[in-house]
Amino acid sequence: MTGKPRLASIIEALPSTVPFVGPEAQERQLGFNFKARIGANENVFGPSPKAIRAMQNAVPDVWQYGDPENYDLKNALAAHHGIAPENIMVGEGIDGLLGYVARMMIEPGSAVITSKGAYPTFNYHVAASGGNLLTVPYRQDREDLEALIAMARSENSKLIYFANPDNPMGTWWSADELISVISTLPDDVLLCLDEAYIELAPENTAPPVDTDRPNVLRFRTFSKAYGMAGGRVGYVMGEAQMIKNFDKIRNHFGMCRVSQVGALAALQDQDYLTQVFSQVNQSRNRIKDIAEKNNLSAIDSAANFVAIDCGRDGDFAMSLLSELTSQGIFIRMPGVAPQNRCIRVSAGTEKDLDLFEEALPVALEKLRRNPA
Amino acid sequence: MTGKPRLASIIEALPSTVPFVGPEAQERQLGFNFKARIGANENVFGPSPKAIRAMQNAVPDVWQYGDPENYDLKNALAAHHGIAPENIMVGEGIDGLLGYVARMMIEPGSAVITSKGAYPTFNYHVAASGGNLLTVPYRQDREDLEALIAMARSENSKLIYFANPDNPMGTWWSADELISVISTLPDDVLLCLDEAYIELAPENTAPPVDTDRPNVLRFRTFSKAYGMAGGRVGYVMGEAQMIKNFDKIRNHFGMCRVSQVGALAALQDQDYLTQVFSQVNQSRNRIKDIAEKNNLSAIDSAANFVAIDCGRDGDFAMSLLSELTSQGIFIRMPGVAPQNRCIRVSAGTEKDLDLFEEALPVALEKLRRNPA
Questions:
Q1: Closest Cα of chain B to A54: distance in Å?
Q2: What is the CATH number of domain A50-269?
Q3: What are φ and ψ of residue B311, in 5° steps?
Q4: Residue from A341, A345, A361 nearest A353 by CA
Q5: How far A16 CA lies from chain B's nearest CA (Å)?
Q6: Do A5 and B158 touch (CB under 8 A)?
Q7: What's the pLDDT tens digit per position in B279-315?
């Protein structure tokens, strides 16, 4: 053959990068299985037993496509949030929904604003749409919403991404602080507010959903507090016309039917959610204790993970992560300085954290004896 | 507010169309539930009982993201097809994979070739990427692959979509016929060969997968013969470099973990697939019999549905469909003339087809007495 298929030029130019390597791929490479899976901010406490039963009961119906309107789930979410079903779109996790937003908003060269070292999957979607990603540094380990908005103005950007609580640092702004800054957001700039971890944050972290405001979209998920990362159910809330735009580009029949059922059952078990909150909180405290016992400091977190400041540079944190990996502990770390002085440990079971507690001093000692 | 978010111009201009209205939405509108769900080419015989058990057992692990590399499933598929894992990409159903291809290939104004009245979801993805969709008429109720390739040449198109067996007509070309026509495909034109129904077609319908040829991609799914439409598992096979391009744009963590497990178990139960083939075949024959008893003719089908030629125009077929709908029978019909003289009935259980057999003459009689 002489010629070959002619890809879109934006895609042709992209590297085949992968936002994250999964723990299974690491295990295949390492040749052993992780003893503690506390790296991907999954919820080790799992979904509500009622959601598990509902999903198991739904499995025989998997021959049917899921309802493309997500009617039952959307209506339950609307009631839960005190908004209309028209203000909600259900999609294939926040990752999937962010991909839709990128396609909805970005044209080749569009300036898109995010924090330096924030969620890589958003950046990945921006790249595939040909956007021009511009970044604002973190300020004291928090995303700097004021600076993000200022840059959107100065760069004539139409799209900002911001997570609250933040990933990978776990830091957050209060609802009042957010409301105040969002009031300065230009009408024609869309803020994607990623609240993946919001159910695990202190009260008064989430502002009320303002369905009159077309330029803020609020992203939520069943992957974190609700314990269904493998189910791929997220949703986005906002003004009705903005929400309707997702119907132009989303995969209408893209939802897993079993997951739809599971998400509905999980939503209906708020008592279980309260219990998870308490388990995550205990786990965060214990991770902090473990860090401090090892003369490291933990950054306060409103999410289901804790960034541990290792007090040195990115190379040191990376070496520590490698040592922990080789001891069977799956964790991750921020990719960009200065946040990459940290390792990021997800909330774990007692056993997970026993293993981490055991492994951390061994790893640190090893690095002390063999500095990189 | 004065301004509003500035959407990408292609998306701004799109209508919020929905490729298909789901049966659940119809039920909500009608105020009753369908008695027979034989409209969406779902597999009423369901997945292998082994796949059901495997999925039920996997549900408690849904707190974990699925393996983004789909390693186990991909390797099993590679062994099944006698190709390398590098020649396969797993994705969120063929719908999801076609969306990726549209983004991979199409630039605003790119000519894209399909048959007039073929799969609407492909057209939907083309529109969202700003492609210029050009259509070739069916010839004797079959997609006209020669004419599609000719139009790709004359219009300098880089992308052709073609389904074998075809949906909505169920007609097909043999492997030999396909190989012969594909040999004339220009090197720089990509053919998306949608084989959603291939496992239900006669032997010698699928050409061998030629992994040396970058310009043919073969799309398969667990939604049809394998009975897992609600699980959202598809895959695409082709030359390794072309396949690798999906890594630039796909949702790496987009697969439902439970569905990954289910697809693997379904693939491993080929005996069950043989049984489904026989059930679908019986069902096709019975739909044909029912049609003929009512003086309608059935078009031979290699898929899990039968297009029944109602012998009149699209309005008549639409009226017949409405009558059947009001009797609780969910079916669909082709959207475009001349195929829209047909109604399309999916393979059903004995009971489904009993209901259809009962409803069809009543509906026809009603139309005879009250012509539109």
A1: 10
A2: 3.40.640.10
A3: 75, 5
A4: A345
A5: 5
A6: yes
A7: 999 999 999 999 999 999 999 999 999 999 999 999 9
pLDDT tens per residue across span A153-205: 999 999 999 999 999 999 999 999 999 999 999 999 999 999 999 999 999 99
- Put simply, the answer to whether A64 touches B230 (Cβ < 8 Å) is yes
Average pLDDT of span A273-281: 98
A244 interaction partners in chain B (CB closer than 8 Å): 16
The CATH homologous superfamily for domain A9-46+271-369 is Aspartate Aminotransferase, domain 1 (3.90.1150.10)
Work out the pLDDT band at A3, boundaries 50, 70, 90: confident
The top-level CATH class assigned to B18-46+271-367 is alpha beta
**pLDDT at residue A342 tops 60:** yes
The reply to whether residue B71 touches residue A6, judged by beta carbons under 8 angstroms, is no
Q: Is the pTM of this model over 0.90?
A: yes
Domain spans of chain A, in order of start? 9-46+271-369, 50-269
- What's the pLDDT at B372? 61
Are the Cβ atoms of A4 and B262 closer than 8 angstroms? Answer: no
Angstroms from B243 CA to nearest CA on chain A: 11
Please tell me the number of Cα atoms within 13 Å of A126 on its side-chain side: 22
Please give the average per-residue pLDDT across A207-226, as a whole number: 97
Place B15 in a pLDDT band, splitting at 50, 70 and 90.
confident
Cβ–Cβ gap A63/B71 under 8 Å: no
pLDDT, residue B13, reads 93
> Could you tell me which chain B residue has the CA closest to the CA of A56?
B56
Which of B113, B251, B260 would best serve as a mutation to test chain A binding (most A beta carbons within 10 A)? B251
Cβ distance of B248 and A63 shorter than 8 Å: no
CATH class, B49-268 region: alpha beta
Angstroms from B104 CA to nearest CA on chain A: 6
- Which run of H or of E encompasses A220? strand A216-221
Q: Which of A106, A186, A248 sits opposite B3 (nearest CB)?
A: A186
pLDDT at B1 over 60: no
* Closest CB from B20, B105, B188 relative to A8: B105
Q: How many residues does chain B have?
A: 372
Residue B129 has pLDDT above 70, yes or no: yes
Chain B residues within an 8 Å CB radius of A85: none
Distance from CA of B308 to the nearest CA of A (A): 23
